[in-house]
Amino acid sequence: MAIPKHDEIRVPVMELLVKNEKMKLRDFIEPLANYFKLSDEEVNEIYPSGNGHIFYDRISWALSYLNMSGLLDKPKRGVYKINQKGIDLLKTPEKIDSYIEKQLQEREPTRQKKQSTTEQLELNDLTSELTPQEKLYTSFSNIRKSVYNEIINTILTKTPIAFEKLVVLLLQKMGYGGEIQNSGLVTKASNDGGIDGIIKEDVLGLGRIHIQAKRYKLDNCVGREEIQKFVGALAVAQSNKGVFITTSFYSKGAIEYVNNLNGATTLVLIDGKQLAEYIYDFGLGMQVEQTIEIKKLDAIFGIQ
Predict the structure, then answer these.
(1) 246 near 252, Cβ under 8 Å?
(2) Tell me: the pLDDT tens digits for 63-98?
(3) Within this chain, do residues 97 and 213 fall inside the same structural domain, yes or no?
């Protein structure tokens, strides 16, 4: 079973508190995992960012919403107890989500009036299946994707030679060529022999990475034939290392061909999405627009 959303956890949490009177957050993990029939892997699954366990976080937000809407009390820090209002509402569990939404909207009515339309819509989405932390991660992912699209669209407006210079700079930014002076070279367009760029891996140039860069429209699939031609160009250049970079994508046949190459030739394929990710992650022509710092209460705060 998939990990339940935070709004799906609310009723089981309340039922557990009716039976157990008082519980700490960690006390909910095992009984809720059993209730939802979760595997150990699902219970221990963490967010892609590495910041926390998903199931634990969703339990935490379920408890927070129940507490903020007045259905649970906290007799002391980290301890939850269902109150009479919660017990009464639990008799009609189908009304719990709408009750919580109404209560949370009434907490700060003045603040809602001052917010922009976008902010108001976000605030009203209180019963969304995503926790605020998950919304943050999703928003961050969407922002990155929009920048990826901007990167690729900008590349498509450039000349082929400008694109070739860009991919050489990118590989250098990724650490290929190290501290070697003039380690990157863009070949002359009139006589490149199917090689658009070269990265020298050592001072003497004994180790070289050859590059082919294709600035294609996003729906232009790179097939096996083009990859075979590049492998042929590598053989002529007496090279066993190559990187094929495109703004589009590769066919299944092209990928299988590369995967089945013998050990004498190492060829890496980079498609448009991966190209944009590398440019973003390695900061080539990028700048930090905004840094958001999120803090949580330290355990030492509760020490008497």
Answers:
(1) no
(2) 988 988 889 998 887 899 999 999 999 999 999 999
(3) no
- The per-residue pLDDT for range 20-62, each reduced to its tens digit, is 989 999 999 999 999 999 999 999 998 877 778 899 989 988 9
For tokens 């232009």, the residue is: 220
Q: What is the DSSP string of 235-289?
A: HHTT-SEEEEEESSEE-HHHHHHHHT--TT-EEEEE-HHHHHHHHHHTTTT----
Structural domain that includes position 193: 156-281
pTM above 0.85, yes or no: no
CATH number at residue 56: 1.10.10.10
Q: End-to-end CA distance of the chain: give it in Å, rounded.
A: 42
Count the domains in the chain: 2
Determine contact, residues 55/13, Cβ cutoff 8 Å.
no
Distant-in-sequence, close-in-space partners of 61: CB < 8 Å, separation ≥ 6: 6, 131, 132, 133
Which of 95, 117, 139 is a domain's end point? 117
Q: Is residue 290 part of a domain?
A: no
